[in-house]
Amino acid sequence: MSKRNIILLIIVLVVIMASILGFFYFYQPTNQNGDDTGGGTNFFVDFLPFGKSKNTTPTDETPPTDISGYEPTETDITDLILKKVSSFPIAGYGVYMKERFKDEQIVAQAEQLDERGRLIKPIPPSTEFVPTLRYVNKITGNIYQTFADKMDERIFSSTTIPKVYEAYFGNKGESVIMRYLKESNDTIETFLRTLPKEVLGGDTTSSDEVRGSFLPENISDMSVSPDASKIFYLFNTGENAIGVTLSLSTNTKVQVFDSPFREWLSFWPNDKMITITTKPSSNVPGFMYAINPERKDFNKILGGINGLTTLTSPNGKLVLYGNNNLSLGIFDIDTGSSSFLGIKTLPEKCVWGMASDIIYCAVPKYTNQTGYPDSWYQGEVSFSDEIWKIDATSGNTTIILDPITIEGGEEVDAVKLNMDEGQNYLFFVNKKDSYLWELDIK
Known about the structure:
Blueprint: H1 3-26, H2 43-47, E1 65-66, E2 74-75, E3 81-84, E4 90-101, E5 112-113, E6 119-120, E7 127-137, E8 143-147, E9 154-157, E10 166-170, E11 175-181, E12 188-194, E13 211-214, E14 219-224, E15 230-237, E16 240-247, E17 253-259, E18 264-270, E19 273-278, E20 285-292, E21 297-306, E22 309-312, E23 318-322, E24 327-332, E25 338-344, E26 350-352, E27 358-364, E28 366-367, H3 374-377, E29 385-391, E30 397-401, E31 414-419, E32 425-430, E33 435-440
Parallel strand pairs: 2-30
Antiparallel strand pairs: 1-28, 3-33, 4-7, 5-6, 7-8, 8-9, 10-11, 11-12, 12-13, 14-15, 15-16, 16-17, 18-19, 19-20, 20-21, 22-23, 23-24, 24-25, 26-27, 27-29, 29-30, 31-32, 32-33
């Protein structure tokens, strides 16, 4: 064989070998549906490790991570009744006890005589106090109400205040605080309105007279006392943050806090304690302090935790807190000890029972790995929640409801959780669309 033919043969063999290697390297077997099998048939990829770093799956198709943590100690998914309360997005709601006539035949009020001709005095109908909801239409500012046990949404006040961003109720539903932006969109207005008194048996007000006053502009945060008779609000003046309590019945204001640091979130768990926590960020250590509104003192409770958010128990002894990994724990103020609950959510998605022994939480089923709580606050991510019950003493956890699995239910990202006085109903707002929901937990 000539030298020229030998060279051509070598070139052909090299080309053939290169083609074979390239075929096995780039070939990714698929199943009948066209999905990547993830199997081990392409052994050249294992043999040539430089090919492993190539990721052919788009990041937005990566399956979400189950963040529920440990399996619950108990599982008690029952036939609970979940109802959508509002027929529109709301800015906020309040729960209070309202008197109403019982559902029984009311004795006719016409004059009746006995066998001796004496006038029989009619028996007045008996009444009862029941949990009642009032809430503000986010678009119009109109106020609506309904009983918790009998859904009958009715307008209470048709006074229009457009585009209310936040609303709080207090003073047994007779006061409402509405927060909205001025037309310039650079100033936060906070309007405290006194609502008309109701007549027993009436569901709407007979007057749309607007009585109230404006609080300082650009209030940065606000919370309502546990008996809903007062509010605590923060606003900035000069280089300082100022904290003020306001009685909703007497309009008495008392300054109880000031600080050169101006980024705070507040919560009012009992009459002896107002907590303030630094606004959280994933990569920034957070701190929590307690204010006694009577003594006006200021004490550190918890700190040095990235992404710290908190929710204090009604007795003021336990702090439910979360970090930038969404790990939920309980901090005992008396002992200084912490214990993690084995589930992952934010304290803002929880509510304490009145005896400080039970916690209800909306727990995300899945999430993508990202910085918390920033991404959730900013609306970059949204959760699909289950409702869990936590025994704060034993640490036992119970899944009681997956809203999407029941008739009439849907996917929810629950916030603003609250309960009535008898703890028969759990209320929350779906962050996805701002509708108000009610869960019967009796």
